[in-house]
Amino acid sequence: MPRHPARRAHILALIGAGLLIVTFGTMGIELGNEMARHGDLDRQSTAAGSYLRGLHHATSDARICHYAWEAEHRPEDGSCYVQAIQQLSDARRGFESFRVVQMREGGGRVEPLQSVWQQLETISAWPHSPEGTPAGGAQLLADLDQNLSVLSRASTLDQADRVANMLRNTSWQRRLALLGILTGVFSLVSAGWVLDRSSLDAARAEASSRDLALRLRATLDSLSLGVAVFGADGHLWHWNEQLAVALGLEKSFFKPGLSYNDLSAVLVVDGVPLLEPLEHVETSLAKGQPAPPVVVECKGINGADLELCRTLFFAPDGAAERRGFVLTAADITMRLRSERALGEAQKLRALGQFTAGIAHDFKNLLTVILGNLELAAEHDLPDQVEQRQEYLSAATHAGHRSEALTSQLLSFMRRQQTGVPDSFDLADLFSLLDGLLARVIGPRIVVECADVSGVWPVRADPAQLESAVLNLAINARDAMPSGGRLRIAARNVTFSVNADLMSLLVEEGRNMRVVSDPTPLPAGDWVRLDVIDSGSGMTREVLDHLFEPFFTTKREGAGTGLGMAMVLAFSQQVKGRVVVATGSGSGTEVSLWLPKAAALSATQVLQPTSLPKVNKPAPSQALQVLVVEDDAAIRDIVVTILSMAGHRVLEAGDGEQAFDVAAAAEGPLDLLVTDIQLPGPLDGLTLSRVLVERYPELAIVYMSGDLTADSKLPEGGVANARLLAKPFRRDGLMEVVTAALSARTGA
Hints:
By secondary structure, this protein is α/β, with parallel strands linked by helices. It contains 20 helices and 18 strands.
């Protein structure tokens, strides 16, 4: 194995390392000598010695001058004594630093230091005059002088120890220098051997890398999807042959260093680039963190269905020059075909998810109903009739909405008949439809409800039958955008034998027909209910898919495609049939074949239910409350209840509006009542966290139709917040508000 070319660089590195070792070794020896000579000479020890000498001199002067003054009473001796006493009094300020140094240098000095401090404290209380020296003062000065002598002797011994340490360190320096030289030589020899082995390993690794690169190249070319690897600067590093095929480009187009922007410029369909801008990729790379892949499905320039996926990659060592992104392109035409086929089979399963999603709206309707009924019960005075009627009308309207929603869902989802009356008179249905349809259909369409006084009762659920007729009427309205005529009629029909409904006579040119169940209708008495419009009719293609769930001819978002599916489910529930007859320019006729039932029984007459009397809430301390709810009806209920309780109520329809309202509010907020699911970037949980930072004492109540009695605080919610499940009544709202306020105050 030949030596690696970098071996000469390794040799130079060894020489440089040796020079550095010698240089830094010499510097280290000199630095060690300096540290040995001066390391133990502590500045604080020097200051402590000066302080001790000053005390000693001042004590000696005080004793000598005192004795001289006692002998001859000369003024200069008295002045000398007073000056010495003053120095000893002033020495108390630096005593603590002196004591710390003495204790650090050695033990056994506690008693002398304590005695010196007490003696200095005593001297500081003496009068500053020779005549004021108390009895025993001379002895105290003598004791102080003796204690200072003890401390001086200890300091002298410490200095001797430091000199001895310095001398001992000098001998260790020579030994360490010799050891350092030997270690340096051994390190150089070892480094040379290691680098020599490294050069051999590097040569082997380079050969292995070449082999790996060739294998990876073969692997990339064998993939069924196109792969392109770009650097962080947006230039092409690697690609495989399938990339050009998947993108519909010439193989010669791809070259090393190809700009990502140049590739994006040619991948344009109907004026829309297929690739994301390079600026977006650079922003993600600049963060330096892995990010989820960006995947998009689109039509390629060659008409194929493509799945484009962009993935970031980073070097393990974090080097910026070894980061970039990978672009893959897969032809998913066959996969999409399979998914579409599978999706058709899964539409009914998806309906269950659709129904669960409507549950939230249904709970909102219940909240509006209960809230308005409670408010109506409060306004029971004669002068409050109009207000009470307004609340009752709102509750009735919401009740009709919830009834229609429930009937449609249940009629489609249920497969067994539950709670269906024995009989139902169509006259009741037609009397309701006569006023209702005019509002639903609009003024451009004339609605006619035939006389059904002689029609037999039918065995069907009134709510489901009403929902089915309303669905048919709405479909008829959509088929007559320019206006027309809608006729609803019913008649009795008796078959002596099983009847094939597809063999009935064609009426008014409606020669295309479809029936919900091709089996013959059993013999007996039936009621035929017809919904007939004067629209343009249906095509054969539409007629063939009419009863399929999610099938609709309306624009995106204008219809769910569940209307006829629910009508079909209703007919199957009552064991009847649905027949649809249409023709070009002849309109459409939808016939519901319903089984005859016995006459109405007295137990089936609906009795009005009296509203429960609601106790007026006890007055409480007025608070400033912010109510956030995207459903205006629910928001009005909550605002009204809290306002009746004496609170000052602010309201908002979403999180951003609530934030603005809170910022503009006068004074602090005491309570936040918010729905968890709010439109926009600020949901209820995020909004509450933001407001709590501004109002730490804010009480929180979370509302949601997804909550139940045993629900726990959602993740991300504010601690001590309280939950309010929809639908709710006023008492329940006030109880939760009280609990939230108690949790805020710690009661």
